Amino acid sequence: MSYTALSFTLLFVLGTMLVSVWQRLGLEKDIIVGTIRSAIQLLAVGYVLQFIFKTDQMIYVILIIIFMISVAAWNAAKRGKGLRGLVWRIGLAIATMELLMMGILLGLHIIEATPQYIIPISGMTIGSAMVVSGLFINHIKHEIQQSKGEIETLLSLGATVPQAIHEVRKRSVKFSMIPTIDGMKTVGLVQLPGMMTGMIIAGADPVIAVRYQILIVFSFTASAAITSILLSVLSYRLFFTPDQRLKQSVER
C-alpha cells in the first residue's frame, strides 16, 4: 500500500469529525490527537521492528518486550488512582504471564525463536493483559465500594482480609474476563480477527491463517486469565490498612 493510498484513509477520520461537529459531541480534539499519535507511534514502531528484524539480536527483543510491559502497566494503573504501588504489581503480573506464555510457546517449539514471531505475539498478549488489568482494577474498586458493609462485617466477625474480600475478587476476575470469553464465542462468526485478516490479505492460505489465529485466541484467553488472577492476588491488600481495616477513601 502506497503512502498516497494510505492518506486517503484520513477521509474516515474527517467523516467522523464532521459527524461529531454536527451532533455537537465535542470529540474533534480527541480524534485529532488520537489520529496523530497512532500514526506517529505505528510508523516509529515499524522502523524499530525493521531494524530489530535485520539485526536479529535477542537483546533488542528483550528490551522492546520490557518497554511494552512498562507502558501497559503504566496505562492500566491509571484506573487505580490513589492506589500506591499498583504500577509495579500490574507490571509483575503481566511479566509473569509473558514468561509463562513464551516459555510454553518456545519450549514446545510452537513458534520459532525469532523476533518476527516473538515480538508480534508478545505485543498482542501484553495488550490483552493490559485491557484485562484495567477492567479488573476498575471493577474491584466499584465492587469494594458496593460491598463495603459486607466486607467490614466479615472483618468484625473475625474473618481475615483474604476471606473478607474473596467474593469481591472472584466477581472482579470474572468481569475482567467477559470481553475475552465473548470474543472466543463469536470469533469467525461476528468478526475475522486482525492477525488472520492480515495474513489473508498478504496472500497466505486461509487455513494456515486460521491455525495462527487459533494460537492467538488461545494465548489471549490464557494470558487474560493468568494476568487477572495474579493481579487479584497481588493487589487486594492495597485496599486495606496495615492493621487490616478497609481504607475509607480510594479515588474512583
TrEMBL record:
Keywords assigned by UniProt, alphabetized: Membrane, Transmembrane, Transmembrane helix
Chain ranges passing through the membrane: 6-22, 34-53, 59-77, 86-111, 117-137, 187-208, 214-239
Bilayer topology: Multi-pass membrane protein
Record carries keyword NADP: no
Matching Pfam families: UPF0014 (PF03649)
Recorded superkingdom: Bacteria
Main location: membrane
Entry keyword Transmembrane helix: yes
Similarity field: Belongs to the UPF0014 family.
PANTHER family: PROTEIN ALUMINUM SENSITIVE 3 (PTHR30028:SF0), UPF0014 INNER MEMBRANE PROTEIN YBBM-RELATED (PTHR30028)
This protein's name: Iron export permease protein FetB
Source organism per UniProt: Paenibacillus pseudetheri
